[in-house]
Write a structure and sequence with these properties.
By secondary structure, the chain is an all-alpha fold. The chain is 71% helix and 0% strand.
Length: 124
């Protein structure tokens, strides 16, 4: 009877450990998927001005004179934003830019001053 109880307890503890490992793995996977989605959305955002220009061209039949400048600006801005987002999203890179949060203990040092007696005025 006692051995069955011990086996049941062992099985329950092992099941809890396996569930905890799975739960940690699922949290990590979800975090990675969120990071990937952010980067993909930024990369898709780079092409939005080009898509608008294409739609305008299809409707009007004319290309705006600033089309190439708009595309270059959107590409440059998108790549800068993606570089910053990648630095913020990656924990190892974020740790490099973070200022130390730990407060260093301060040790107070007591100073003792010696008084010198001016013996010139004491002499009689």
């Amino acid at each position: 009877m006692g051995s069955i109880y011990a086996l049941i307890i062992r099985y329950v503890h092992r099941t809890n450990n396996i569930q905890q490992i799975r739960q940690n793995s699922n949290k990590r996977d979800l975090l990675i998927v969120k990071r990937i989605i952010v980067l993909v959305l930024i990369a898709m955002g780079i092409g939005i001005p080009t898509a608008f220009l294409l739609i305008i061209y299809m409707i009007t039949g004319e290309l705006t004179s600033l089309a190439y400048h708009i595309q270059a600006l959107s590409l440059t801005a998108g790549l800068v934003i993606e570089s910053i987002a990648l630095a913020i999203i990656t924990p190892q890179v974020r740790k490099m830019f973070r200022l130390p949060q730990q407060i260093e203990p301060v040790m107070t040092v007591a100073t003792v001053q010696r008084r010198r007696l001016d013996t010139a005025w004491i002499q009689t």
